[in-house]
Amino acid sequence: MSKVLVISTSLRTNSNSDILTEKLIEGAKASGHDVEHISLKGKNIGFCIGCLACQNTQKCVIKDDAVTIAEKVKNAEILVFATPIYYYEMSGQMKTLLDRLNPLYPSDYKFRNVYMLSVAAEDEEFVPKKAESGLQGWVDCFEKAEFSGSLFCGGIGDMGEASGKTEELNEAFEFGKSLR
Fold this sequence. Notes:
With 180 residues, the chain is of the alpha/beta class. The protein has six helices and five strands; from the N terminus they run βαβααβαβαβα. It has a single domain (3-177), classed as 3-Layer(aba) Sandwich (Rossmann fold). The chain has helices at residues 16-30, 54-57, 65-75, 92-100, 129-140, 166-177; strands at 3-8, 34-39, 78-84, 113-120, 146-154. This is NADPH-dependent FMN reductase. Keywords: Flavoprotein, FMN. Pfam families: FMN_red.
């Protein structure tokens, strides 16, 4: 099937997004996908300095973990970003990584389908919309790619609470199975 890269952006130990991401990965593997999982925990990812040297060299002048992650993103066919929702938006570390993936813009990237899994204590329908819009904005810069779907799991706030959420765990598994 396809080469899937799942990027977990929560820095919290035993995070709800990580628990649901594991189920998503199980579902993707059950569909025959080759899945690689990267967590941003413990990674050193600096802010983009806007020099735009990467537009000519396809390499970032900042030498940190974002360089290795960008290479994996470039070679994946399907991308999944998992994020907690902070202040109705994606995590800051996810946005920082997206900015640092700028060297991919002029490259021969392989990804075509981009997905998001988001988790929040709030459960209203509008809660993930700004995070989805932010990821859509990034995807819009890559003309061969599209934002292909999102799963929002709301009403989950306490650390590790997702472990006991059978319905959401099943939804994450099915979402993983549905990746195309």
